[in-house]
Design brief:
Shape: elongated
Radius of gyration: 36 Å
Largest sheet: 8 strands, antiparallel, barrel
Structural class: alpha+beta
Helix content: 10-25%
Number of strands: 11
Strand content: 25-35%
């Protein structure tokens, strides 16, 4: 068989509409080029997105609603100053509102607590008071700290303990005698009186990943004046008295109980929180 005897199956070029074929080829070429450009653009966007996302993830790790940065486990132990302001007072547990007060007795004034946080060999945390110079402070030692929502932006320490709270009333109370005729008469005011509430609850919440707008992570550095560094996370501290669980009694400077003071069903409380941004 000679090559000349083979009949090719492909159509003859002669008679084809070359202009139409060229136009079709151009359209197909443009479509392919558009698809290629689109695919290339998509890959570039994905690459940039991953890069930016990783960068943001590293930069804002631990942030919560733009409130600040987390300061890590290494900074969660040590001695700190916990700066708060009095934000709310409730007098629902007593028949005389003047017998419940919260230091510093007005809002906007910074109330400082000085505490130390430590971690033992079992990775358990505890907290102790360092100073009770402030009337709002109470002495306590090695109170367990519970870590909630570990590794989440809502991660926080919580702790609580029971105590007795003594209050100097904001107004003079009338003394009355229950044991001796030599005691002051019921109508005589006692300016040195005090009221004690038993079974009060002191509780604190210390956020570890929601940083304060007032104190940035640099606040962890010890201040030049030698004071404790400020805890940079948000803080909430409450003192609560539930009249159903505790009792109250008021006495004058001589220890004589002052009549007419009684607990009523309700709750007394002092709420301290992180100061507003200056």
């Amino acid at each position: 068989m000679m090559l000349g005897d083979i009949k090719l199956d492909s159509p003859s070029v002669q008679g084809l509409d070359t202009e139409q074929d060229t136009s079709s080829w151009n359209r197909e070429h443009r479509r392919r080029r558009c698809r290629f450009v689109g695919l290339l653009t998509f890959l570039v966007v994905i690459t940039l997105g991953l890069g930016v996302g990783l960068s943001l993830g590293l930069s804002y790790s631990g942030m919560s609603n733009g409130e600040g940065t987390e300061f890590g486990d290494a900074s969660m132990t040590g001695s700190f100053s916990f700066d708060t302001t009095l934000q709310q007072i409730s007098t629902g547990c007593t028949s005389n509102p003047t017998t419940w007060r919260c230091f510093p007795y007005s809002s906007g004034v910074v109330t400082e607590f000085q505490w130390a946080i430590k971690q033992d060999e079992d990775d358990d945390y505890s907290i102790s008071s360092l100073s009770t110079a402030s009337p709002a402070s109470h002495a306590f030692s090695n109170v367990p700290l519970t870590l909630l929502d570990s590794s989440l932006t809502t991660e926080r320490f919580v702790f609580s303990f029971q105590m007795n709270k003594t209050v100097v009333p904001s107004a003079a109370l009338a003394s009355s005698s229950f044991s001796s005729s030599s005691s002051p008469s019921p109508s005589k005011p006692s300016h040195a009186s005090s009221c004690t509430y038993t079974n009060a609850t002191f509780q604190g919440t210390l956020w570890t990943r929601r940083a304060s707008l007032r104190h940035r992570p640099k606040a962890l550095q010890r201040r030049q004046d030698g004071e404790f560094p400020a805890w940079p996370g948000l803080i909430e501290i409450t003192e609560l008295v539930d009249s159903r669980k505790g009792s109250m009694a008021c006495h004058d400077s001589e220890g004589v109980e002052i009549g007419g003071m009684r607990a009523v069903e309700g709750t007394c409380g002092c709420l301290y929180r992180t100061p507003e941004r200056p």
